[in-house]
Amino acid sequence: MRIQFTNVLSVLTLVVLGQTVQAADAPTSFPVGEFKFSRPAKWEWVETTSSMRKAQLKIPGVDKKESGEVIFFYFGEGGGGGTKANIDRWLGQFEESRDKINAKIEDVTVEGRKVSYVQAEGTYMSGMPGGAKTPQKNTMLLGAILESNQGNVFIRATGPAALVKASQAEFRKMVEGALGKK
Hints:
about 180 residues; alpha+beta; two-stranded antiparallel sheet; 9 strands
């Protein structure tokens, strides 16, 4: 029995050390398209599971069960559809109609670059396009589309409404920091 316990303890130690090294190696800044983003300090790097995702972050909640996700998409020049089509698609991912999700769209110019911000709240229908959907009540979506001649960058944050609302300033700072705004 002692040998088995020692082996289990050794394996657990290696797993913990591996996670510590992996967290330490997580990038604090990363490129998506022509832009370079800086990860907010408390947000965690997540290895992407899809070739469509160019980067992914986790917004940890106070409760370990709750977290938000921030996904960066980039499809190259002319790829991924236009700004309006993507905003409509994002807002269409809610179970409720557009007038019931408190949808807000804001177009701004930052350092001479156009950014479209999107915000909505309701029952988000999570899932891959064309696949099964899982309703997530009380979810907020924050989106940003950075327009570029080299191809737009699409950033979508979703998660529990209170957590995502509390992360709005960091989200915007991250987006605008990639455009050179301090």
